[in-house]
Amino acid sequence: MPTFDQNIISLHELENHLRQLSHIKLIHIIKRCRVERILYVDDNIVYDSKEESIKLLAIEFYKKGYNLGKLKEKIEQLCHYYINDTYFDFIDNKDPISILFCYCHLLNNKVFSKNGNDLFFNTRRTLKDEPLEFIRHTTIQRKNTITQMRIDFISFINLITSDDCNKKKYIKHLNKEYIFSRSKFNFNWLSKKDNDQAIWAVKYIKDNHIIKNNHKHIPNIIDDYNHYSIVIPALFHSLEITDDAKELFLIKMKKAWGQVKYRNKIKKDKKTTINLVIRKDSKSKLEDISHFYGLNLNETFEKLINNESKIIKNSGI
Question: This protein's superkingdom (predicted)?
């Protein structure tokens, strides 16, 4: 019968082996154990702490009589469909747009079937398999943080009983498309500190027919204006439309914002717009006056009006 000290050593052996695994792999093991009804661990612990995950797994396996050798065999079985962490390196917590890009793409495309078959690259649509929907394995409510979205995305891919070649092909596609789209289409004009722009941009995206047609599911985090400059580029980059369509989309969006910004500036400066039809020679004279004073046409027109108004007032008429 093992002594108390031997029991402690055995538990530490299990912990030390589990500690060599990445946090995302530990989460995969926990989720697989839950599927097989081996154990249940609260999601918050899974997401928040690698060390807590290690301790809980070690204790559960130890209670079930697992030694180090048996644990290694079980992990190999649980990770049969798990692909190497390096394939997910580009989905980085330091680049939240990359996380939301992958999350939104998987959320809004039929990628794998319930039988593990590839649907996304089956362009001839010869397969009639029922799609495995990511929306049923995650939550798009605002409480779901970007870090949790990353975990949900990677865990879903790894839990699918599909050939690893299909999984790797899909991940490589996302990596390639993300790098290309970000390099070609710039969203630096979105300002994290511009609340007016945030309110306008979120409404613009939600009302846009291209977004509606291609993105049935949008994470509610978009309504948190602190994240709008992350979510909007991610939604855009993850659209499965042509580059020309993307370019036109972005041109229209930037033009629409330019018009809104101009109208807001007019209101702020207490200005208004008027439509005038004048003779060509009058316009030419107005341009000469503008050049003389170093003003634009609007400023020159205002100057002439103000000067004329002063003359009339001073005349006592």
Answer: Bacteria
